[in-house]
Amino acid sequence: MADGGQRHVRVAVIGSGFGGLGAAVRLRRQGITDFVVLERADAVGGTWRDNSYPGCACDVPSHLYSFSFAPNPDWPRNFSGQRHIRAYLERVTDTFGLRPHIRFNAEVRALRWDTERLWWEIDTARGAYTADVVVSATGPLSDPQIPDVPGMADFTGKVFHSARWDHDYDLSGKRVAMVGTGASAIQIVPEIQPRVGTLTVFQRTPPWVMPRADRRITAVERWLHTKVPATRELRRQLLWGIRELQVSAFTKRPDELGLIEAIARSHMRKVIKDPAMRARLTPDYRIGCKRILLSNSWYPALAQPNVDLVSSGLREIRGNTLVAADGSEAEVDAIIFGTGFHVTDMPIAHRVTGANGTTLAEEWKDGMAALRGSSAAGFPNFLTIIGPNTGLGNSSMILMIEAQLNYLADFMRRLDVLGGGIALDARPSAVEEWTRTIQQRMRRTVWNTGGCDSWYLDANGRNTTAWPGTTGEFRRVTRQVDLAEYEVLRPPRTAAETGRRTVEEVAA
């Protein structure tokens, strides 16, 4: 149906990053073609479309940061840049024939569950849809977070977030402030330092930074990976296995991370010779508590004469003067915020209204919670890709996404077995039990015991972001849907005519 009308689809996928495109591929491989991918932008790519700042690259090896069903033998580097990752996603879109399903510039403004028809009503910027199933793949790194700094409205210079880089603004010779020292900032600073006039870096908390074992992948390697696919798969499996072995140190025995800390300290000492400067750059928390960053150029950039490291956060702005919490001041022409994203308070949650008439944000006011990282109670036939407690601290999120795609595939199979017009709603007791188990395991992890305040934690101090286990374990627990964890919903008219089948009858 043309834009502006209402159309019913079996599945609506929100977002066209790794999660959304992966869901679309999996649906097609299941034989499901009656679906749309609703994308608010004008191109696919998700975070790899939005983050185009100088130096943007992945901190997971390329051969592990790609779909198992869409291997790429031609990755140019161990850690490929944004341009190559985005090109890979465009290629996946075309290879699997996804473009006819994608609706660009179709931002989802509201979703509401219809308890009578058992489907989702979806309001988008390109018209209305209804869908039996909704897959939310908006991702936790999609909506930039800029702090509300007093005096911001009076600043007359240029302001933008790292994920909304203004390529038309020339930084050459400018006095620039970089607010934040996270994963984006440590890539941006070395790239812009040589061409700006002065660069003031506002560091609230120093990160642990490890060497980045990056290099070009040779033509011989790429040829071998193309002609002998087993070599490409072996490389992927080795990268995966090494990271699986590291998990216990993060989740069960944080004290074992001391050796990693020693490597990070040595990495800093090789460049930063001033003891006072090293002290300002040395974290006071256990490595791994916050995201471990990889860079060979971060410390050399900070050591340059046109860079000033301010060891406290930005407190206020007076005209074009930035004032730090320690009282130091810097007059600048441009402010770049590398201050992260809305991770534990995802904006999409405010737009989703479930069976009880409450939004997902309201249900999650005390912390995000979803069965197996996918299903929230009271939101039937609504699955989240990269949902609560699915994040990783040391491996590839693509592995977690593919595990959730397995769960999605089995969810659709279960609906087929149950018959048309059926919905599955996660039982509150199942969500509570899953969440309780996760939080119990979380108590001994480095994210909870390492002595830091990270974006893994929500406003209540609960870790609702990370997964406290291996990717292999997560793949096992999401291999199939356990119908005992769901309530089977049928339209009233169908229930009156045919009676309601119990979960036990269906499972049998």
UniProtKB/TrEMBL annotation:
Keywords, sorted A to Z: FAD, Flavoprotein, Monooxygenase, Oxidoreductase
A GO term for molecular function: monooxygenase activity
Gene3D superfamilies, sorted: FAD/NAD(P)-binding domain
Family: Belongs to the FAD-binding monooxygenase family.
Protein name: Baeyer-Villiger monooxygenase
